[in-house]
Description:
single chain, 306 residues, globular
Amino acid sequence: MPYSGLGSVQGKVQCVFKTEVMNEESQKRSNQPYKVVSSKELSQSADEANVSHSIVSEKIDGTCCFVNYFKGRAWLWARHDRKPIKSADKKFRKFQKAHHQWQTDSKQTEEPRFVWDTNKDFKPPPVNWIPASGVGMSGDRTQPGDGGHIPGWVPVDPAERSHCWHLTAVNLDHHLTAVNLDHQMALVLGPKEQNANTLEITTVCLNELIGHTLELIGTHINANPYRIGSKQEPVHVLVVHGSIQLPSLAINYDGLKDWFTGNVDGAVEGIVWHCHNKSLFKVSYLKMIIRAIPLKIVLDPWNAVP
């Protein structure tokens, strides 16, 4: 299928609604005494991006990947965020609590500030690491986002144990048929051309996916919420971000909440809007109602390549 008009997930995707801080312990992050939730008001940036006239897609629960060139060849890249060393992370968490308290106190005092020393505060990047597109810069130094990480990518390495499941969804050694000897291939899950309501797995040349981000899902990813494959016969596939599209939905908090809870199509992790200016916005259903994708999966899909 064509992938034009879809944005690339290079960093944290903003919520489509303005967010609010609540004095309740976070369910997502341990030792965080507050949580950030959606308000009912559309965010200014989403409004300015004309989000109501965007491509609406399902938010997929997996691990993020990127297709880019590596040593002159189309290649799959795995997400790798540079994280602060333990002492710097401890100071940053202390700052976050102080900043939250400042917000709770109605900003009565001077706003707390935090300055990173990116030369000393962060673990060194792996070989061939590149920063994600849009990462802030100060001179020639990459800067962390609000969460204290520097998002980036590393090329998938056949010798790297942490990339073992990525490698089951791509064929970087191009040992396929003679027709495809010059192309690295990927197993991609997406809507069937003749019927968008049916999902199918096809082989796609990585050259066709250059610049796109994708989600790796399957047996050994994020506890396998889609129930794909089994431990005895694991299966992993890639999903181009924005390719599994949803009907146009009015961006209304109560209406979306009803859609999540009362519509069979709403049993998804969340929604992502792909705007014409390539901006991305999302909303996630807090209780994470996960649906199983009704797939008939070939257990050794590489052998099914014609």
